[in-house]
Specification:
This protein is α/β, with parallel strands linked by helices. It has helices spanning 13-27, 45-60, 84-95, 98-103, 119-128, 144-154, 199-203, 211-223, 249-257, 277-285, 302-308, 314-327, 346-359, 386-410, and strands at residues 6-9, 36-41, 64-65, 74-79, 108-113, 134-136, 158-160, 167-170, 181-185, 187-188, 207-208, 228-232, 264-268, 292-294, 332-339, 363-368, 415-423, 429-434, 439-443, 452-460, 465-469. Strands 3-2-4-5-6-7 form a six-stranded parallel sheet, sandwiched between helices. A five-stranded mixed β-barrel has the order 17-18-19-21-20. Strands 9-12-13 form a three-stranded parallel sheet, with helices on both faces. α1 (13-27) runs parallel beside α6, α9 packs parallel to α10 (277-285) and α10 packs parallel to α12.
Length: 470
Amino acid sequence: MIEKYSTVNDFDEAQNEYLDLIYEIMQGRKRGKKPIAFIHTYGCQQNVADGERIKGMLSKAGFEFEDEPDNADFILFNTCAVREHAEDRVFGNVGALKNLKRKFPDTLIALCGCMMEQKHIADRIYQSFPYVGLVFGTHSLHQFPELMYKALVTGKRVYALDNDDNLVHEGIPIKRDGSFKGWLPIMYGCNNFCTYCIVPHVRGRERSREKDIIISEAKEMIESGYKDITLLGQNVNSYGKNIKDGVSFSELLSEIDSINGDYWLRFMTSHPKDCTRELIDTIAASKHVSKHLHLPFQSGSSRILKLMNRHYDRKKYLDIVNYAKSKIPDVSLTSDVIVGFPGETYEDFKETLSLIREVEFTSLFTFIFSPRVGTPAAEMDDPIPSSEKSKWFKELLYVQEEIAAKRCSSMIGTTQRVLIESEKGKDGILNARTSGNIIVETEAPKELIGTFQNVAVTSAGRWILRGKII
């Protein structure tokens, strides 16, 4: 059943008025010449995109930004709930602010994001961290100015955990972190309910943005000089399914690809169950879409995939991969893998290793299973000890390192078009990236950062290439 929702422009006159009021309040509370905000984002690119919208709103309220919290008048942690490690880091970093709040009592400390949509987490924050003045979840982002204003004016703790799945909120200002690499959300939420995943519970059901709004934002980014644009969604392949007369993701990708300019277009994350031949054909025929497909398989065992509720098996996954290889020369395939899912045996794990060897991924994002409260997998019997899972994990890394080193070595002597991204250090070495998402180190002036260059590959490591600009 397709769920209906509507698109609304929430960043209206009222929210702008709250930002004006925040500006006035901060003139009397700031410690420096201008109010300072410290924003730290954990987790996925969707969280990063949310953080850019928070910065956009704060910029309109007169805030500037620093990379350390010590001088900040407003401190916010934008949280991730996917892994326990990320949650532990949040609790540790919030705990470290206790003395700062005691020294500067006017400092407003806030938490937002996916963790805050979990009641047991919000309750822990309320009970253990009384100096946190503002807490809001993913569904309340459009109300941020109003919530912040209430926290500043009343001095009371403000909690907003509104799990409203039926709206797409538009009109929120954006302050992007980069000048040539950028994120473009095309949809929010997820309908898949993989048994290990907390995302549908904290991000809600799938909601696609209107095509015309996405196209307009893409054109704006390209005209502003963005060279590497990533379309974001928990499952981009489902784009358009819940919009009346909506276009498919393949059609959206093709329309953006037709925009004139010199840029690369990427997307993530792509779910195998919805990855169609039409999508692969669109990538193959495109001018700007990166020849890189991130397609999480999670396990090579069909039995485990069924327990995960992934809606595909090993054969279907390999059929997709083999079709992509046949249509897209030199396609770069990357994936996600979970090691030690409840009920997984070593025989299941060996099927994962054999799939990795067969596909020969460029790189993998690998994780040992982390139970999430509220998901079915957290309640499943899990007899394999963590020490054994760690052994499997190391074995997987060794296999993937061999494959990655082999791939990188095969590229020696080739010429690669790369986007120069950053300085590696102070020795004149810059980090660049290929269309296939492989890092290339090259000696070049830093003025070339943000430009496309051709690099002759002269040597290779396990995961990276090295070369000279030609």
